[in-house]
Amino acid sequence: MKKFRGFTLAEVLITLAIIGIVAAITLPSLLVNVNEKAWDAQKKALHARLAQAIGQMNTLGGYGTYTEDEEGTATVDTAAESFILDALSKVYKINNVCGPDKLSSCGIPSKITTLDAVSEINFPTKMKELNAKLLNGSHRTGEDGDMADTKAAAFETVNGESIAVFYNPLCSSDTTANHYTQNKMCVNFVYDLNGEEGPNQVGKDVGFITAFYNKSPVVVAPIPYSSNYTSTVPQYTENAGTVDAQTACKTMGEDLRLPDRDELASLFVNVPLINPGESSGGYWSGSVISLSASGLTWAQGFSDGARNRITRSAVGYVRCIRK
């Protein structure tokens, strides 16, 4: 009868050491994947709740008071805080509201890391800090709408999210003509899913949701793809061997797609949070007006906020988002 020798202490210790090394290598990546899936689910739920709440409002414009002097300096600004208290809280359960000078009391971090993980920036506290291009000269006005450089306010949700509100009380309604994004943006929410707790990075626990149009609002929450993909790609051409913008996104990843017109406008509004060095070119949207070779599709300018109907045979940039 054969006798089986047990493991020596040295062999047991070596085995445990190997297991520990393997765990140290694999566990961090596994935890990141688990966290990102949880964040994605939480983002979608937050978007659904806010979209439902905003859909119950008769109008998004006109809350609070905002006045400027002759030099364009705000002398009275109760817009964002009033929007939360007098409008949003009527249709959405809110735990705590914080004024412009107390954002941190609602869990808003003082600094966040941009999507490209290259820059750490101060959390914006007013519209111009969110994106200075929103206040570009004549681009901020038009069609009875305007863009106001209001201060941000914040609130906490019952689920523990911290949300800063950038509110434009002067926003206007939708139009089918060429126009600028600035005066169509009514509310931009920049949220942190777990408050000041890390990593405080856009694309992970930090994201944004934007509501456009004073009446019949559209609420979007695009999740931008983190890689650099600003190369020029034709939207449409008769030439063989070229790649259209929709296919370009699929080529980069099966879970990616081209943003629609309003999702692309939201990316423009929040571009300093995504990539402060963003190209100023024009970007294609997935909102095609006509499928013919000479037809039109919507494109978004990132230099001035212009939204134009462009011939599909033209050339533009591509910025994909996650499905």
Compact description:
With 323 residues, the protein is of the alpha+beta class.
Q: What is the overall pLDDT average?
A: 86
Number of helices: 6
Largest sheet: 6 strands, antiparallel
Number of domains: 2
The run of helices and strands is: HEEHEEEHEEEEEEEHEHHEEEEE
**Using DSSP, what is the number of strands?**
18
How would you characterize the overall build of this protein?
With 323 residues, the chain is α+β, with helices and mostly antiparallel strands. The chain has 2 domains: 33-220, no CATH class; 232-322. It is built from 6 helices and 18 strands. It has a 6-stranded antiparallel beta sheet with strand order 3-6-7-9-10-11, with helices on both faces. Strand 14 (282-288) and strand 15 (296-301) form a beta hairpin. The longest helix is centred in the N-terminal third of the chain and has 47 residues, at 9-55. The radius of gyration is 23 Å and the shape is globular.
Which SSEs are present, and which pair or pack?
Elements: H1 9-55, E1 66-68, E2 74-77, H2 79-91, E3 94-98, E4 111-113, E5 120-122, H3 127-130, E6 153-157, E7 162-167, E8 179-180, E9 185-192, E10 206-212, E11 218-220, E12 232-234, H4 245-252, E13 256-257, H5 261-269, H6 271-274, E14 282-288, E15 296-301, E16 306-311, E17 315-317, E18 321-322
Antiparallel strand pairs: 1-2, 3-6, 4-5, 6-7, 7-9, 8-16, 9-10, 10-11, 12-17, 13-18, 14-15, 15-16
